[in-house]
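ARCHIVE RECORD
Type: protein–small molecule complex
Small molecule: pyridoxal-5'-phosphate
Source of inputs: curated submission
Record status: active
Notes field left blank by submitter.
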Amino acid sequence: MSNVYRFDRRSFLKQAGIAAVAGSLGTATSIQAQENGASRSSGSGYDFDEIYNRIGTDCSKWDGQIERWGDQLRIPMGVADMDFRVAPCITEALQERISHEVYGYMATPDSYHDSIIDWNERRYDTVIEREMLLDSPALLPGLLAALRAFNPPGAKVVMQTPGYNGFFSTIRKGFVIEENPLREVNGVYEMDFDDLDRKLAQDDVHTFILCNPHNPVGNCWDRATLTELGELCARHNVIVLADEIHCDFVNAGHDYVPYANLADDLVMNSVTFKSASKSFNLAAFKDAYLFSHNPEFMSRIRAVGDNATINSLGIIASQAALEEGDDWMDAVQVYLSDNAAYASRFINEQIPHMSCNQPEGTYLAWLNVEPLIERIGAVETAAAETAASGPDQDEVTPEAIVERYLIETSGVKINPGSSYWGSGRMRMNLGLARPLLEEALGRIQSAMQQA
Ligand SMILES: Cc1ncc(COP(=O)(O)O)c(C=O)c1O
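STRUCTURE (tokenized, with ligand):
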């Protein structure tokens, strides 16, 4: 545990009301989770309702945010990981490995790669040959390797906004962000192909980053959209880098279409990036993979990538998950889908000054807080704070004012949409136990009733 930050878990939980919530479901919410039915804990055999304490483990989502915001922070819904215990098969595999107490250099076993190949074929009909597959120490380093393989320094990289902030920081390591804004039509996001056509036509554009399912807006792009996108990229000789790290989180009624399952000519113009780490909550282990059906692409990435072996405990954990974690994954998908249905309904029906669409995939909700921004004068406060801060300081955004306001009035932390280039929006992580979700929404509801 960290020496810098000593935290009294018991007292925090008590103050937060979390212990009480764990004992009973009596929260401020009036909509009960009718959608959950048998899926909620009992049916699957996994108790996702359990409030599992992560405080004091140096985790970014809880400890990092409590360190930043202090005791007023009660329920963090920011960093994109889940609060559930991992699938039992993962713990068993890790326990077995750590019972052997030597951790010297290790090779990556074939069985690990087989587990990736089998998972993709079994669950998504995606065929991956071993020679197409490359390990990556987390997803973003693999993406950066691909950017370096396909772009000269200073090239423009097209990505869609609102977009995952990790793309911004990765592109900036030698390249320039070229934005293709998504269009919001009646609250639903869609791709703007006219704008994309213009952006892709530029001489210094060689790569396009696709996010499917999309963080943060939650779209699962359908086959027709992906095909149109792919044809446009192929026409302009622009390689598609498909980040599909959220692919295992698809809400009821929606589908994930792997880019690698499109027509052959489009697939040959792409590289896909994935990991078991998002699906099974193993982000700390830093293991991911990428693959392409195009051998030339693979050899160009291999030439510049970090080919060091990946994290050995992560290999054990990921392999166990991919080999034996199907039923846990199925159960958590249903649970999170119910969380999304519950949260969007509650927000739209019960919470003033904000609204949200039900995400199609990911466990992230994308909230429209424009009325709240107006209500609390966040634009003016942000401008005043920006003017008062030093010239090297980042601009204070209205969404950052909303973030602080919500923490101060409700104790709930959600991420400013401006971090994803989304104005008037906030991102809420729904990867938590339902009683805690109910508690968080109840807290926001009370705060908003007084705003
Ligand atoms: C779309 C997307 N890509 C990549 C990542 C980061 O993956 P990694 O930690 O494996 O680099 C995230 C994390 O939230 C993400 O949402």
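CURATOR ANNOTATION: The CA atoms of residues 44 and 406 lie 34 Å apart.
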